[in-house]
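Lab manual, section 2.4: Encoding a predicted structure.

Procedure: take the sequence of the chain (232 residues), apply the prediction step described in section 2.3, and record the output as structure tokens. A sample record is shown.
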Amino acid sequence: MTNLEHETPLTIEDIVEREEIEKITYELYYFASRGVADAVRCLIADIGLKFTNEIIDTVEELEELHFPPMLLDCETNTRIYGHRAVLRYIARRHGYYGLNIGEAAFIDSLTEYALDLQSNYWLLDECVEIQDTEKSSDHRIEILKTEVEHALTYFDSYIENIINTPETCVIKPRPLVNDRRSYLDVCLYSVLSNIHRTNKSLLPQFEYLWSYIHEWDAKKSIQNLITSGERF
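Recorded output:
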């Protein structure tokens, strides 16, 4: 277990684990914005790790990195490129990836769906902006709207089912897979949070998604990330 928010006093094992975690630091290379790196920042913060934002602000820096974000694991000097690969690397290393290969595959599939939701929403937003000048985009807009609505409805129903099952853990918000925190939980929160930043009226229509966002917003790890200015 790597999540350091406890409902009970810390044990010796917890203290040792915290000391080990505090030795690990990351450098995250990305633009001065949330973008696809937001889920990475939230995941690192939720685990309780330290990281620094290394801002890309020149064409030369962007060309050198190939395709950001890039994560540097300062302990192992490992470099990982691309937000999905970065997320999986951190999740595997810190126990946010399920208990077995089947659970990991299930977590991956739902995380991919959540990240695709974000991509489709951003595409939809762009298409709506140019709709007046490109009438041919009307059909694409309808397709994207349908995909976004289906994904939001799916996750809303999924969280409802989780909430309505007997509670067997004290972790809040309720984990989405087998009562253990995974990178799926953090990614879904990040996606929903970023959607809400640009459309204040959409997510309140989904009762359980709306509640999920508020529970994550209230987490100390997320509040600390926001107040630090590292989330942008």
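Check your result against the sample. Residues 119 and 170 are 32 Å apart (CA to CA).
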